[in-house]
């Protein structure tokens, strides 16, 4: 796919107005599902054509380790990335996590040579959740909020 085809300046939406080599992603770092402890990490000028899920996980973990505002979020062993919402598409009603699409929206974070992020249908302004899979599974079994 050429850069001329992966964005639209004629009738742009925020999701299609920028090339896949220069997007803004929001990663929702989830510390606790029941207590809704979520902090957004914004990655600007991110290259979806070159980066894999393993690259995205690494970049997010580096931000968490180096940014002082993420200090309370360092105690979680994050191991999963999942698309939360796509720009200009339907949104989930759950404020913490999208319970749908467990089979097709989870991003492979283990294979550094794996699929590029653009192959997951990720575009500019896509929101991605980052969390510990075990915590998600427990919360999904009993989605009770505690605040």
From TrEMBL:
* Entry's family note: Belongs to the UPF0538 family.
Q: Name one Pfam family in it.
A: DUF2340
Known InterPro entries for this protein? UPF0538
Organism (species): Huiozyma naganishii (strain ATCC MYA-139 / BCRC 22969 / CBS 8797 / KCTC 17520 / NBRC 10181 / NCYC 3082 / Yp74L-3) (Yeast)
Q: Please, which domain of life does this record's source organism belong to?
A: Eukaryota
Name it. Answer: Altered inheritance rate of mitochondria protein 29
């Amino acid at each position: 796919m050429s850069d001329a085809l992966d964005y639209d300046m004629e009738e742009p939406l925020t999701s299609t107005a920028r090339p896949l080599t220069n997007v803004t992603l929001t990663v929702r770092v989830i510390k606790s599902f029941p207590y809704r402890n979520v902090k957004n990490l914004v990655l600007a000028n991110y290259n979806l054509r070159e980066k894999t899920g393993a690259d995205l996980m690494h970049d997010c973990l580096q931000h968490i380790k180096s940014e002082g505002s993420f200090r309370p979020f360092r105690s979680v062993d994050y191991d999963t990335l999942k698309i939360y919402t796509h720009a200009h598409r339907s949104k989930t009603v759950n404020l913490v996590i999208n319970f749908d699409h467990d089979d097709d929206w989870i991003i492979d974070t283990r294979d550094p040579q794996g699929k590029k992020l653009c192959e997951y249908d990720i575009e500019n302004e896509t929101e991605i959740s980052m969390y510990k899979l075990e915590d998600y599974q427990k919360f999904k079994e009993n989605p009770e909020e505690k605040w």
